[in-house]
Amino acid sequence: AQTVTQSQPEMSVQEAETVTLSCTYDTSENNYYLFWYKQPPSRQMILVIRQEAYKQQNATENRFSVNFQKAAKSFSLKISDSQLGDTAMYFCAFRASGTYKYIFGTGTRLKVLA
Amino acid sequence: AAGVIQSPRHLIKEKRETATLKCYPIPRHDTVYWYQQGPGQDPQFLISFYEKMQSDKGSIPDRFSAQQFSDYHSELNMSSLELGDSALYFCASSLDRAPEAFFGQGTRLTVV
Questions:
Q1: Could you give the CA distance from residue A28 to residue B75 in angstroms, rounded to a whole number?
Q2: Backbone phi, then psi, for B83, in 5-degree steps?
Q3: Which in A17, A37, B84, B94 has the greatest CB count within 10 A?
Q4: Dist. CA A18–CA B32, nearest whole Å
């Protein structure tokens, strides 16, 4: 069975600074996908970034980038130039290739301070 | 761009009543997922459908059932509601060949 662990329940960062959220996972699968989703106070789940396990290059989407370490089963999210609108709960998620379910971590609540 | 549509957005039911939640996926998406998120919890996978067939099953109570229809919309039927069923219910959709799922805004179910 796959598991996703987010060990930081809460974090805060000053506006314009950089913050890194951690995620580790456990799987015996070789082909899978990893995601970061953002859930602001509206509780809408918004896809932030995705990473395919077969790709060595780390994914980047504007101010969001990941550090994917397949051997260590680690998938951290870096937010650069943090903005007040980044305040949200961030969930790390895993999907094994060929399956139809996403497994979520317990989330990290990020607060961006003005 | 079109998103996943869920209805209703809010629902209040009494214990032992029945509720039906509806989900309309993004056009051309063939896979639908249902998740339950309790207060302060992470989303828990209930069930998914690919091309109108159940594709995966999670921790869905026997009191709940779901299906995906010919137009790809999906319904989650919940019977004999309990107080503990109060939660935010998300539907998500994806294209089979694409790995990411897109979520609707959720249906907030309150059982009183």
A1: 33
A2: -55, -35
A3: A37
A4: 35
A45 vs B contacts (CB less than 8 Å): 43, 90, 92, 103, 106
Domain hosting A52: range is 3-113
Residue with tokens 């059982």: B111
> Which residues in chain B are contacts of A49 at CB distance < 8 A?
none
Spell out the residues 6+ positions from residue A71 whose beta carbon is closer than 8 angstroms to its own: none
Domains of chain B: 5-111 (2.60.40.10)
Q: For B59-71, what is each residue's pLDDT tens digit?
A: 899 999 999 999 9
The verdict on A16 touching B (C-beta cutoff 8 Å) is no
Q: How many domains does chain A have?
A: 1
Distance between CA atoms of residues B14 and B65, nearest Å: 19
* One-letter-per-residue 3-state SS of A6-17: CCCCEEEEECCC
A10, A49, A101: best to mutate for the B interface, most B CBs within 10 A: A101
Is the model's pLDDT at A73 over the cut of 80? yes
Q: What is the mean pLDDT of residues A40-64?
A: 94
Query: For residues A7 and A22, is the Cβ–Cβ distance under 8 A?
Result: yes
How far is it, in rounded angstroms, from Cα B33 to Cα A9? 26
